[in-house]
Amino acid sequence: MESDEANTTNRPAEVDRFPNRDHAIVAQRVQRLFLHLNPPPEFSDAVALVPCAGRAKIDVNTDQLSKYMRGKYRDVQQRVYDYFNSRPELQTPIEISKDEHRELCMRQLMGLVREAGIKPFRYVVEDPAQYFAILEAVGSVDMSLGIKMGVQYSLWGGSVLNLGTKKHRDKYFEGIDNMEYPGCFAMTELHHGSNVQGIQTVATFDPVKDEFIIDTPNDGAIKWWIGNAAVHGKFATVFAKLILPNDIKGASDMGVHAFIVPIRDMKTHIALPGVEIHDCGHKVGLNGVDNGALRFHSVRIPRDNLLNRFGDVSRDGKYTSSLPSINKRFAATLGELVGGRVGLAYSSVGVLKIAVIIAVRYSLLRQQFGPPKQPEISILDYQSQQHKLMPMLASTYAFHFATLHLVNIYSEMKKTHDEQLVGDVHALSAGLKAYVTSYTAKSLSICREACGGHGYAAVNRFGSLRNDHDIFQTFEGDNTVLLQQVAGYLLKQYQEKFRGGTLTVTWNYLRDSMNSYLSQPNPVTARWEGEDHLRDPKFQLDAFRYRTSRLLHSVAVRLRKHSKTLGSFGAWNRCLNHLLTLAESHIESVVLAKFIDAVRSCPDASSRAALKLVCDLYALDRIWNDIGTYRNVDYVAPNKAKAIHKLTEYLSFQVKNVAKELVDAFDLPDYVTRAPIGMQAAEEAYSQYTQYAGF
Amino acid sequence: MESDEANTTNRPAEVDRFPNRDHAIVAQRVQRLFLHLNPPPEFSDAVALVPCAGRAKIDVNTDQLSKYMRGKYRDVQQRVYDYFNSRPELQTPIEISKDEHRELCMRQLMGLVREAGIKPFRYVVEDPAQYFAILEAVGSVDMSLGIKMGVQYSLWGGSVLNLGTKKHRDKYFEGIDNMEYPGCFAMTELHHGSNVQGIQTVATFDPVKDEFIIDTPNDGAIKWWIGNAAVHGKFATVFAKLILPNDIKGASDMGVHAFIVPIRDMKTHIALPGVEIHDCGHKVGLNGVDNGALRFHSVRIPRDNLLNRFGDVSRDGKYTSSLPSINKRFAATLGELVGGRVGLAYSSVGVLKIAVIIAVRYSLLRQQFGPPKQPEISILDYQSQQHKLMPMLASTYAFHFATLHLVNIYSEMKKTHDEQLVGDVHALSAGLKAYVTSYTAKSLSICREACGGHGYAAVNRFGSLRNDHDIFQTFEGDNTVLLQQVAGYLLKQYQEKFRGGTLTVTWNYLRDSMNSYLSQPNPVTARWEGEDHLRDPKFQLDAFRYRTSRLLHSVAVRLRKHSKTLGSFGAWNRCLNHLLTLAESHIESVVLAKFIDAVRSCPDASSRAALKLVCDLYALDRIWNDIGTYRNVDYVAPNKAKAIHKLTEYLSFQVKNVAKELVDAFDLPDYVTRAPIGMQAAEEAYSQYTQYAGF
After folding, report:
1. Strand stretches in B223-377, DSSP E
2. Where is the Acyl-CoA oxidase/dehydrogenase middle domain positioned along the sequence (chains A, B) (predicted)?
3. CA atoms within 13 A on the CB side of B54
4. What's the whole-number mean pLDDT along residues A248-269?
5. Residue A503 pLDDT more than 80?
6. Measured between alpha carbons, how far is B572 from B578 in angstroms, rounded to an integer?
7. A312 CA to centre of own chain
8. Is A528 within 8 Å of chain B by CB?
9. Cβ(A254)–Cβ(B669) under 8 Å?
10. Does residue A48 carry a pLDDT above 50?
11. Chain A residues with CB inside 8 Å of B459's CB?
């Protein structure tokens, strides 16, 4: 092991992202050059390790594919759809004022819980996969409703369940479950979002009255963006620095803790004394959620209101905790909130599905221009439209399987509390949340643009989907911050590897093959350009993982170098773009691996062939998008780069041929997608649309 | 010349985008290899052809820079700003219903014309630069107002002036100018947007009554998205196929012509008989504009209402035109509408400026995390935030100069009607409109995300800017279609070149140096990596132009090849992505050239240094974004790629150091940018923001 580590330390600058090729590799290059001149014939065709779909048009059985895609909680989703479909008065109109939207959203949530009998709270801990399925379905009815439900059950409810103890569960479960206790999650402050440890609200223990006193010391500490606060909330879980009076020093800051603070009178609904509540006002989207701002003026709460799972204060003001330090307790506290990210990644794919369904169906319907004296052709017949939408359709499938995997390991973790799984879920939820929500946000704009003028009609949904989804990139962890967490975990794993330790599940590939990935690219395979080779999952995965491993190794070297002069914070910042690329690359590796697994596990042959086609497009499009990196390290020779590009365009064309079946397989009925231009029966689309305008 | 052409025809596949390197270049490669081993020292430092800013922090005099940036029509813009600033009741509130917004927008326009005395119509033909300046200023008050003004004066008014003759001007000028004749531009139909020649509305001449009869033959021909139609319009310029009764064949279709059709009664404002008007309803943005749908049921209009500049019908039903064919007349008709694209490109930069100002100022203000035990740092101090915003700031400057250039040549064209200039303005307006609006659309989302939660508050403007601007990518020509026009013009120029003909102004570089750009990259300069070399405008321009020339040549070869089997339509579609890349590459070349000119022409040394810094970032960031293409043809060696990447990050850091001054130089007062988090005086930003929420 030590020799390994020494090796790393001494690795010259050539392992950096864009290596100064040094003299040592010249021999290889000369060899490559001559290979180039006289390629042995067997290399040109490559080895077909796995049979691929070939060039015939695939016959997709939508029912079979749909059955494979559909999660085991489809029934409860259907109940959600049916309920809202049967209550037109609960459907959100195209135009609605903020205040009306908030009231409607509350009625929708009440209807769901009290009338449709769908009570999500019990699933938050017991069956999270079911909870996320409900969340996704509710979000496709109106994303404001999804978020309002998430605030109530994941955030406010989840904080009580996960950060509190039995006394809290006994006291609050019923009221949270049946919506008698609508509540808030008051973490973010005006001046602090990502840096939660920097929040300034204080909770000072008063041993005389056995109470905590909650205070907002300055305007920067006003709790901001608090969902349910502006109108409906009765309680808030308030995150504040716990201050204990201390004979010697005056007071001790015990770090961030969570406290249940009643904010409105249970009967009159008037704000309680000392609780100042304002409305954060109109937002870009999600205006059905009543975000508010809270300022506390010496608000007193009983000692029991400390959510005391990870740290407690006794009657005489002594602090006890099973965890040794402020940082460990902080990590444990925030760690319990990871479920929110899982839900966002999962729901983001749900949004992406709706948008892709609408854009693909309209692109098949819409005709514009054509060959001289012939009928106009569908706009999806244009290469440019395929380029915009087919890799996006492939990514939607890829993310579907990846987030399903995340939900499964999260559920497993909730059952077993296995420590490796905890780390894995942590990093993967951070990474997938960031990666998927950024991708969906960009895609929503592309879909609108790809649907031209009719995509700009509010009734066709791209506007509200984009505006509502936009903040997915920010809340529950800013994407740029989350990706850094992923990079941090990867670096930790990297160090473990060289210490001979074990690695968590998702990045087995780092353990298995770091060395091979770090060797010089093979000049022979770098030139292989046969379709069988390019569509071989081994080539694809190797390429993704090579990139990740190389980025990881090179950033580790750079960080070490810069730390000496800039300190660790400065070195991190100097390498920040590199670290973000590394994190994205890792997430892409995981997504591809899960997609390949899903293709292999598909029992129906025709569905498997369709998924293989889509998976190949996903993989090759990603490689092509980053072709500069592959070229810079000669992992891919120019002829291979060209072949990848050509094949990507060809696969886009092939996927286009089954695009209708592929979006139908998402199995979302018209009353969920709702856009007239995206109706399943193409012949009704325009007439539905003109009827909407009053014709 | 013929030998040139023969040369091209015989050029082997290696000139394609990703060349199969052939044996002929092996000698070069071996030479490169050995150069790599022993680089002569003089190559490492490169030749400093132009002195560059160096590594010291630049001292920017905002006033001087602002003076240079400010157009000569700043005064009229200031009058617009002042007028609306003095009329709080005319300012658009954060939340407003569609119907109220439409009425307010109309009041704003009336106020501008009748109270502030700013009458844009006279400038549409006489002084377009002044017109565009007003349009930009009005758009920053409320983009709906900008578009409503554009509908009235550029589209409805512009069609009367440009497609009509003196009789139309005499009859309508005054009413259009003073808003007594609010009007529409009824071109787009439900089934036809981009393909204007495919529209189906008909205007049949009735020689008995000396009238045209306007008819909507089917639902697909309903005029759709017609601004001013749903509520305010009295007239519409209707585009329809002119049908002339013909003794022999029954009837002749003379192609698309424009007709003035009164749609509402001048007194009662009720829809006239046979004119069916519906509301297109709520849109993603621009809800202050009343877009409607029009169906015509045998609506009769006098023969005089044909806008007859390019084709006329006599009393006895004979057709006359100075232009020989339907296609020529159609081209002339659409050609007159090019001003709309100029205005959109220009206004899009205005939107980008507002967004960049807000995002940069907030990123300087906002602090989050920091080195251990030290104060938190500004988020713009993070490399990732610089990466998001600094190339965007550089692009804003680049687009400012490019669109100013476009406005100038458009004005020149309107005066001289010089034919070369017409072609140039046509392609450049199409290309810049497409390129700039796509860039701005993406940037608005990046800015929102970069500003985190507070970027999601509606009051901070990213939402409305994005929603309003979104359709800039579609109207006045779908961006994907417009880029194809650019590619088409380039191919035409390419063929001209080989026939020895002249080229229009903007692509002189193609004439001057197509041959040198098409030669093999120089293996020596491909390795130069010195800062002076990379910041040399010659290197930058050469790289941009090399790429364009290569893409142009290779797509011409591919088109010729595929035409044989697929026909010209099929070949075009097979090469479509390639053609779009070519068009974008050309536009980038023009933008860079204009930016370099603007740097050189700047009289103030400190401003010139700042602009040079920004221009270098613009150029190198673009090269880096497309590094795969450069690597694939060995235009840039790996060491140079790495140097470009490092320098781009370093220049982003340097631009960050003067980012405040650079956004201040856009010279937009707080009451125009309006976002609390983007206030010029940073110390007031948070307090303005909390006051807005009621604190």
Report:
1. 223-226, 235-246, 250-262, 275-279, 292-296, 299-302, 312-313, 319-320
2. 184-299
3. 6
4. 93
5. no
6. 10
7. 33
8. no
9. no
10. no
11. 281-282
**Arithmetic mean of pLDDT, A497-512:** 60
Please give the sequence-ordered ranges of beta strands (E in DSSP) within B211-305, or none if there are none. Answer: 211-215, 223-226, 235-246, 250-262, 275-279, 292-296, 299-302
Look at residue A500 in the predicted model and tell me its pLDDT. Answer: 60
pTM of the model: 0.92
Nearest Cα residue to A403 out of A481, A346, A343: A346
pLDDT at B520: 80
SS3 A453: helix
The low-confidence residues of chain B, meaning pLDDT below 50, are 1-54
DSSP 8-class letter at B606: H
Tokens of A137: 């379905």
Identity of the residue numbered B163? L
Q: Is B174 a catalytic residue?
A: no
Cα dist from A374 to A368, A369, A378, B167, B199, whole Å = 11, 9, 12, 40, 15
d(CA A92, CA A145): 10
A238 touches A186 (CB < 8 A)? yes
pLDDT at A694: 94
Q: Look at residue A680 and tell me whether its pLDDT is greater than 60.
A: yes
User: Burial level of B15, CB count in 10 A (0-12/13-18/19+)?
Assistant: middle
Size of interface A-B (CB pairs under 8 A): 288
pLDDT digits (tens, 9 = 90+) for B15-43: 333 334 444 343 344 344 333 433 333 33
Neighbouring C-alpha atoms within 13 Å toward the C-beta of B39: 20
* B253 and B197 Cβ atoms separated by less than 8 Å: no
What tokens were used for A85?
Answer: 């479909």
Selected residues 620-639 of chain A with any CB under 8 Å from a CB in chain B? 626-628, 631-633, 638-639
Q: Are B195 and A376 a contacting pair at CB < 8 A?
A: yes
Q: How confident is the model at residue A10 (pLDDT cuts 50, 70, 90)?
A: very low
- How far is B637 from B630, CA to CA, in rounded Å? 8
- For chain B positions 273-292, those within 8 Å of chain A (CB to CB) are 278-285
Torsion sign over Cα B121, B126, B131, B132: positive
Asked whether the beta carbons of A669 and A350 are under 8 A apart, the reply is no
pLDDT at A580 over 60: yes
* pLDDT value for A507: 59
Between CA B688 and CA B674 the distance in angstroms is 11
Residue A22 pLDDT grade (very low, low, confident, very high; cuts 50, 70, 90): very low
Q: List, as ranges, residues 371-430 from A with C-beta within 8 Å of B.
A: 371-372, 376, 381-385, 387
Q: Tokens 């592309």 map to which residue?
A: A446
**pLDDT digit string, tens, across residues A132-168:** 999 999 999 999 999 999 999 999 999 999 999 999 9
Give the lowest-confidence range in A171-185, A681-695, B27-41, B535-549: B27-41
In a 3-state reduction of DSSP, which class is residue B438? helix
**Rg (chain B; Cα; Å):** 27
Q: Are B585 and B517 in contact (CB under 8 A)?
A: no
A479 touches chain B (CB under 8 A): yes
Contacts of A441 in chain B (CB under 8 A): 445, 449
Rounded CA-CA distance B224/B293 in Å is 4
Which candidate from A478, A642, A693 shows the least CB-CB separation from B278? A693
Strands A223-226 and A292-296: antiparallel
For A2, residues 6+ apart whose C-beta sits below 8 A from its C-beta are none
Interfacial A residues in 205-234 facing B (CB < 8 Å): 219-220, 222, 224-225
- pLDDT score at A57: 72
Nearest CA in chain B to A437: B449
Mapped onto helix, strand or coil, the DSSP state of residue B237 is strand
ipTM confidence score: 0.91
Rounded to a whole number of angstroms, the distance from the CA of A628 to the nearest CA of chain B is: 4
